[in-house]
């Protein structure tokens, strides 16, 4: 069993879609980034890559590569699972946190978990998602950005 940690932050901007955990969430702003800026999937990819000793998301999917412009980050997660498999590992369990002042994540939690479960090939009960606010403090609390953290464990195939 090996463990990895991941973190990501993206700025909220008008005129962008908000995509978290592969789910499009209705909101007045979306996350800014080269890809679809799915902050949760980026943190999760980094946690899984970390657990596999495979570096980080920027090494595998650089934000300077035009192939990744506007890409659905579920593709990064799929690719990450393949990279892990090549090294002889598969995901075991996941715990993650999304810190967002708005919108509320709770209505989307089960859809996100279902989505992750399919791509990671693990049961939904092996995936935990926590939604927090920043209590109005700092840029996250002022709804300028959304942050995500993830911890992943992997086991030998
Ligand atoms: Mg990112």
CATH architecture: 2-Layer Sandwich
Alpha-beta content class: alpha+beta
Low-confidence stretches: none
Secondary structure: helix percent: 25-40%
Q: By CATH's scheme, which homologous superfamily applies?
A: 2-C-methyl-D-erythritol 2,4-cyclodiphosphate synthase
Largest sheet: 5 strands, mixed
CA-based shape: globular
Which kinds of small molecule does this entry bind, naming each only once? magnesium ion
Q: Strand order across the biggest sheet?
A: 4-1-7-5-6
How many DSSP H or I helices?
A: 5
Q: Provide the succession of SSEs.
A: EEEEHHHEHEHE
Tally of discrete structural domains: 1
Q: What's the count of strands? A: 7
Give an overview of the whole structure.
By secondary structure, this protein is an alpha+beta fold. The chain has one domain: 60s Ribosomal Protein L30, Chain: A (2-Layer Sandwich), CATH 3.30.1330. 29% of the residues lie in helices and 31% in strands. It has five helices and seven strands, in the order ββββαααβαβαβ. Strands 4-1-7-5-6 form a five-stranded mixed β-sheet. The protein is globular, with a radius of gyration of 15 Å. The mean pLDDT is 97. The structure holds magnesium ion. The site of magnesium ion has 4 residues, from strand 1.
């Amino acid at each position: 069993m090996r463990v990895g940690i991941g973190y990501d932050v993206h700025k909220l901007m008008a005129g962008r879609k908000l995509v978290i955990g592969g789910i499009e969430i209705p909101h007045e702003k979306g996350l800014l980034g080269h890809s679809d800026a799915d902050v949760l999937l980026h943190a999760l990819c980094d946690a899984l890559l970390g657990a596999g000793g495979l570096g980080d998301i920027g090494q595998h999917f650089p934000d300077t590569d035009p192939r990744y412009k506007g890409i659905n980050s579920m593709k990064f997660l799929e690719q990450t699972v393949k990279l892990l498999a090549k090294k002889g590992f598969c995901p075991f369990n996941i715990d993650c946190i999304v810190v967002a002042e708005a919108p509320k994540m709770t209505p989307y939690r089960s859809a996100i978990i279902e989505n992750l479960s399919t791509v990671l090939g693990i049961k939904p009960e092996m995936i935990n998602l926590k939604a927090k606010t920043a209590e109005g403090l700092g840029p996250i609390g002022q709804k300028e950005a959304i942050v995500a953290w993830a911890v992943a464990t992997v086991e030998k195939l």
